[in-house]
């Protein structure tokens, strides 16, 4: 990758969400904001190789995007009110106080996660507008076709515009009812950064994981007593703590059992464990834990073990049993099977995994898990076929390299 390409990629990671959010606040239109920002990056791709990377790429892109947005408004000729257009051009009006925390990206998330939209639509729209993910990346996260996802996002933006959904952080009274959709979004944004799905992409996208953590911290400041907010933050911190150990020097993904635990971030683990202990105390007092709190507790068990052999798998399985009652999804069942394999053996786990075949046929982790269980049972030919299918479906080079190595080690 050339220096210019690297600068554009870095700017996209660092500036996309901020620019879309700022333009949405200024112009009040998601379509205009997204298109203008996309056009600004397209202009950078054309001009920076010849002109050089500007001293402040973010400022250059923001200025260009603002001009693109104004040009589009003028072309559409839908703004007859000259006073309003002048206000847009000069942007001298101070922003209205919109919430306890003044953050454009947080407001954008609450706009995209408005209850007028279906839950999956909220998540997809926010992954696009805030996370800057491409439509194919989002489609892979939802296991649907890219054309289907494109239509879903387009309809969502049209609905926001038609319903005049406000661009603001909800009032204190409305926050609790609105926060679950936002947490679902942030969880998926973090997961996309933790293990990117795009072909040819880096296995880990720190820009997405750090932004998800930043926004979750803001929501925790808004709702300090909300157990699921605390649980999600703990889950993110305990997962992010392992980032430095998750990719080898040659770019291969490193599985949990092979990671150098000395490279884990002790400060993030300590903070995550503290949050989990707080939620365990609340559960002991009668507050039933939610999905994110249980997932955080599972990660706390893993990060408490100094060695993979010290993992308390019975505790992990008990937590998964609790989780599956709340969320009986096939992916949770697949993850639970990994714990079953450690306690009851790979054959018992394989029977569980095989029952998920129809639901997870296009999910690479299903085939990777099945390949590993077949390997442990000595069924090398079937394991190789499962690895081949997992490699075919894998989303990034790091994961492909790991799966290929595991396949090639088969006897």
TrEMBL record:
Keywords: Sigma factor, Transcription, Transcription regulation. One of its GO terms (molecular function) is sigma factor activity. It holds the Pfam family DUF6596. Residues 178-278 form the DUF6596 domain. Residues 19-78 form the RNA polymerase sigma-70 region domain. InterPro entries: DUF6596, RNA_pol_sigma-70_dom, RNA_pol_sigma70_r2, RNA_pol_sigma70_r4_t2, RNA_pol_sigma_r2, RNA_pol_sigma_r3/r4-like, TPR-like_helical_dom_sf, WH-like_DNA-bd_sf. The keyword Transcription regulation applies. Residues 77-97 are annotated as: Disordered. Residues 77-88 have a biased composition (Basic and acidic residues). Belongs to the sigma-70 factor family. ECF subfamily. This is Sigma-70 family RNA polymerase sigma factor. It comes from Actinoplanes aureus.
